[in-house]
Amino acid sequence: MFKRFFTVLFLLSLLGLFGSAQAQINTEVEPNDTCETAQDLTGADFPFSLSGLLHYDRDYFKFTATPGTLVAVDLEGVDQVAQNALGILNSGCNDYKPTPHLNHEVLIVPKDGVFIVAIFAPVRPSESFLYRLTITPTSAIGSISGVISDAITGRPLTSAVNTTVTFVNCKVTDIYDCMYNRSLASQATNNQGEFAVSREDDGTPLEVANYRIWVSADQYESVAIPFFAMAKDQHKQVNISLKPYPARLSISPCNNIPSAGGKCKFSVTVFNGQAKNLPAVIWNIVTGQGINTLGQTTQFPILPFPFVFLPKAGSKSFNFQFNVPAGVREGASICVDTFVGGLGKNPNFNIKGTSNFCISKMAGSNTLKVVPESEANRHLHRRNLKGSVALVK
Predict the structure, then answer these.
(1) What is the CATH number of the domain that holds 229?
(2) What is the pLDDT of residue 178?
C-alpha cells in the first residue's frame, strides 16, 4: 500500500497536478476503494482540491459541510473516457443523486452534513487515470422563464405540439454533447406557451453559472440559445420563437387491424407553414419489421404521390391506404413515414415537412394497434439502427 502511495505522489508530481506543500497534503490515500473505506476528509475547508490516481478501482472521499448549503463537485481527468465518472452518496452509502453528470455535479448538503464522492471510469475500469477533484461552495440563481411562440404567427407553442425547453450548463461548445452530458432540467410549456425553471429535475437549485437553452417542438426547427450568465438570486426572462417547418403535417392513423388482415386507411393534412405559396409533392414510405420472419424488414412506397399547391396559411387533406397481410407475428411493427417535398429537380431531397405513425402487434393481442408517438419513435429508432431510412423529426 505504501509503495503505491509514493508511486502516486511521484506520478502526480511529474505531471504537475500539484506543486506546493499544501497541495501535496490534498492527495488521495489508499485504501479508499469502497464507500465504507472512503478517505476521511471531514472538516476540510472549501474550496478544496485533491489529486489522485484511479488504478484498477474506484476512489471514495467523505466530506462534511453545513446542512442545506449548495456545493459544486468538479472532476478533471476522467471525463474523456467515462460517460459517468462521478457518484454522490449519503452517509449510509446510498445514492444521493442517482443520475450524476459527467464531471460536474451540484448538491444540497444532506441534513446530517455528510456526503461521499465516488470517482470511477466505467467505460474502461481496468485502466489507470490521473484526476483532480474540486469541491466549491456555490449559490442558487432565482429563475429562468419565458414564452415560446411561433415565429410567423406569434401564437404561443404549447404542450399540444410537444414544446420542450431544456436547460444545460457545461464547458463544451457542442450543443449536442452538452445536451447529452449536462441536461439539468427539461420542461414542457403550459397552455400559454410559458415555462419557468429554478431547479434541476431532481430538485436541486440551479447554481450560479452560464446556461444555454435548447427548445424543440413537433414540426418546428429546434433552437439553441447562446450561453448567458446567471447571478445569485437573479431572475431572467427569455422569450424564444421557433420557425415552423415549411409544411406541417397532421396524420389521422388507421384503425386497429384484425389478425385476418385488412386495409390501413389513414389521412394526412398538410398545412402551409411559410409566408408564401407552397407547391409540393407528398409521398409515404411503409416499413414493416418481423412481419413473417423475426427480424425481417420490408419497405415500399404508397402510390400515388399527389401534388399540392397551398397558398399562404392554406391546408389540404389527402387519403391513403395500404394492405396489411394476415398472420402478422406478435412483436411485429408497421410504420408509415410521410414526407412533403418542394417541387423542383430533386423534390425527394428538398424536404419541407415530415411526420409518422406506427401500428404494432403486441404479445397476446389479436390485432395490430396504433401505438403512442413515443412508442412509435422507439420502433422507428430500432428500425434506423438496422440500417433503414432515417427519420427526420
Answers:
(1) 2.60.40.1120
(2) 57
